[in-house]
Amino acid sequence: MSNVAVFGLGYVGCVTGACLAKDGHTVIGVDIDEDKVAEINAGQAPIRENGLDDLVAAQVAAGRLRATTDTAAAVAGSDVAMIAVGTPSMEDGSVTTHVLESVIAGIGNALRAAPKTYHVVIRSTLLPGLLETQMQPILDKALGPDFPAEVVLCNNPEFLREGSALKDYYHPPYVLVGTDDEAQAQPVLDLYAAVDAKKFVTDSRTAALVKYACNNFHAVKVTFANEIGAVAKAMGADGHAVMKLVCEDTKLNISPAYMRPGFAFGGSCLPKDLRAISRFAEHEALRLNMLSSVMASNESQLKRALKLVRDTGRKQIGLVGLSFKNGTDDLRESPMVELVETLTGWGHSVKIYDPNVTLGRLRGRNLSYIDRHLPHLAQMLVSEPSEVLDHAEVLLLCTDVADAHDWHADGRGQVFDLRSDLARPVPAKAGAASDARAARAA
C-alpha cells in the first residue's frame, strides 16, 4: 500500500482521496481552504456527492484519511502526490493553470528540502503540451540542479461524473496514465488495484487529449440531440422518438449516452473543455467549425427555454433543480443558473426547489460562482415542494430532482419539463388543462 497526498479537496480530489483510503492506502488531503480541511478531519465531506459523507467518515475514523494545509508535511508523509486542483476557463476560453503551477512548485520546494524518490501525478484536466512545456520546467526549477533522486511527473486523467462519482471511480471506462516510460507508470497503476477496468499507459500528450476528446464528444452528443429535437418540435414530430431510433444504430459506434433531447448542458467540465479546444484551434488557425459552434447552439437551447417562459406572459416562475444535474450541488456553469439570472433580470419572481443545494455547504469556486451570478439566491431557495408550487404560475422541471414528485398533477399553472418539452410538440389539450387549473386557482 502507498502513502498518497491528494492536493485539492474539491469534487475530484475528495472522491479520489476517500476511495484510495478505502482501498487501504494512507491518504493526506491538502487544500488551502481551512474549512475544507477541518471538515475532512471531522469526518465530513466538504462537497455533496452520493455516498461520500459516509465514506469520508469511515476512512477518517479508520485513520487512513486526514487533511492539512501544510504542503511540506504532506510531501514528507507521502510517496505519491495526486493533484486535483481546478483548471477553469479564463474569459477568452484558455485554461487557467496558476493554481496548478503553485502546487507543483510547492511540492518541488518541499522535495528539495528533503530529497527522495517521488511521483507527481496530475489528475487535473490540462491541455496537451502544458505538462511538458510549463509544468515540468516549474518542477525542475523548484527541485534545483543536480537533484539526487528521481521525481516522475505524469498525468492520470479522471473520468468521474458528479452524482455518480464513487461508482465511476471503481468502474471507469479505463484507467489511463500518461508517461514516456511505462515502468514509471506502475506505481500509479498500483493505486488502482481495486478498480474494475482495463489499464492503459500512453504518452502524456495523448493521455491529456483523451480527456478533452471524451468531454468534447459528450458535449457534441448533447447538442446534436437538442438540435434534432428543436427541428422535430417545429415540424410537429416527436424528437425523442426520432433520437431513440437513431440510437438503435450501434454499428457505427453511436452510444445512447447523452442522446436525449433536453435542456442545455452545463457543469464544470464540458463548457470549459470546449472553450479550451476552441481557443487552442484559434491560436493555431485551425478550422474546427462544429466544435466552435457547439457553445452557440447550447446558448440557443437556453434561449428556447426562455422564450417558452416569455410566451406565457406569466411573471411568477418556479424551478425544480438548480445544480447542473441531480445528485450534486455543483452550480458552476449550470444552465439553470443562467436561466434564473436572465429571468430575474427581466423582472420575474423566481422560487427554486433543489434539495441538493444548501447555501451553507457551498465552497470555493462553487460559492464564488453563485455569489457572482445569483447573489440573492438565499431569497429564492425553498425547502419544500409546496412552496415552489404555491408560488409558480409557470413551473420549470430542469433536472431529475423532479422525478421525486408529480409536479404536473399539483402545479397550479403551466408545467414545462425542460428535459423533454423542448423537443416535443405540446398537445393542445394539455395546454388547455393547464390554463383551466390556473383559472380555478385564481
From TrEMBL:
Assigned keywords, A-Z: NAD, Oxidoreductase
Has keyword Magnesium? no
Statement: the UniProt record of this protein carries the keyword Glycosyltransferase: no
Q: Which residues form the UDP-glucose/GDP-mannose dehydrogenase C-terminal domain?
A: 318-424
Superkingdom per UniProt: Bacteria
The pathway to which it is assigned is: Nucleotide-sugar biosynthesis; UDP-alpha-D-glucuronate biosynthesis; UDP-alpha-D-glucuronate from UDP-alpha-D-glucose: step 1/1
* InterPro entries the record matches: 6-PGluconate_DH-like_C_sf (IPR008927), NAD(P)-bd_dom_sf (IPR036291), UDP-Glc/GDP-Man (IPR017476), UDP-Glc/GDP-Man_DH_C (IPR014027), UDP-Glc/GDP-Man_DH_C_sf (IPR036220), UDP-Glc/GDP-Man_DH_dimer (IPR014026), UDP-Glc/GDP-Man_DH_N (IPR001732), UDPglc_DH_bac (IPR028357)
In terms of Pfam families, this protein maps to: UDPG_MGDP_dh (PF00984), UDPG_MGDP_dh_C (PF03720), UDPG_MGDP_dh_N (PF03721)
- EC? 1.1.1.22
| Catalytic activity annotation | UDP-alpha-D-glucose + 2 NAD(+) + H2O = UDP-alpha-D-glucuronate + 2 NADH + 3 H(+)
Q: Which family does it belong to?
A: Belongs to the UDP-glucose/GDP-mannose dehydrogenase family.
> Could you identify this protein by its name?
UDP-glucose 6-dehydrogenase
